[in-house]
UniProtKB/TrEMBL annotation:
Family annotation (SUPFAM superfamilies): Acyl-CoA N-acyltransferases (Nat)
Gene3D superfamilies reported for this sequence: 3.40.630.30
Protein name, per record: GNAT family N-acetyltransferase
Classification via CDD domains: NAT_SF (cd04301)
Keyword RNA-binding: no
Transmembrane segments: none
Signal peptide (from-to): none
Organism domain of life: Bacteria
Cross-referenced InterPro entries: Acyl_CoA_acyltransferase, Bact_Acetyltransf, GNAT_dom
Molecular function terms from GO: acyltransferase activity, transferring groups other than amino-acyl groups
Pfam family name, one: Acetyltransf_1
Domain called N-acetyltransferase: residue spans: 1-176
Organism for this UniProt entry: Spirosoma endbachense
Keywords: Acyltransferase, Transferase
Length: 176
């Protein structure tokens, strides 16, 4: 299963993939379709993805089937870690955020999520990071179970603006 680094030319592809995975992961029955569409328009449009791809603090990986069909993606972002992380990891350059990691629903549960996560963790190690962190919706039980299997530990929470609704996410971290 090929995984490649996204380029500026991938903005539309990533927007479409992100929109699909967002609808599948967070649409009804978890949230209303209207709320999900509101989030998509405000956060993962092609123009927004174009800006994110151009940001030197962001890196995207796209996972594809052998025939080049995209089935998932991840976004890592160099940013200030949450205050709940220990000072060792909050030091500049020591931790990186896995801001997004999604697969299309037909591929969930087949091992591709683990491969994509391992790819992100290996990339972070090779880049010199000693920890990764991420936020996950408190009601996303499948993702929480996956992250626990991958060795992530809960360190706190924050509020996330999902469209017009404020939702609570857990902060999780993993030492590399």
């Amino acid at each position: 299963m090929p995984i490649r680094t996204a380029t500026l030319a991938d903005a539309t592809l990533l927007s479409e993939l992100a929109s699909t995975t967002m609808r599948e992961a967070f649409g009804p029955p978890y949230n209303t379709a209207e709320l999900v569409e509101e989030y998509i328009q405000s956060s993962i449009s092609p123009a927004i993805l174009d800006d994110e791809l151009a940001d030197p603090n962001s890196i995207f990986f796209i996972v594809e089937l052998a025939d080049k069909t995209p089935i998932g993606y991840a976004k890592l972002r160099r940013t200030k870690p949450p205050r709940q992380m220990t000072s060792e990891f909050r030091q500049i350059g020591k931790a990186i955020e896995i801001q997004r990691i999604y697969l299309v629903q037909t591929q969930v549960g087949q091992g591709q999520g683990r491969l994509l996560m391992d790819y992100c963790l290996n990339w972070a190690r090779q880049a010199g990071y000693i920890a990764v962190w991420l936020g996950v919706w408190e009601r996303n039980e499948r993702a929480l179970a996956f992250y626990q299997k991958m060795g992530f530990e809960r360190i706190g929470f924050h509020y996330f603006q999902f469209g017009s609704e404020r939702q609570r996410d857990f902060w999780l971290q993993k030492q590399l």
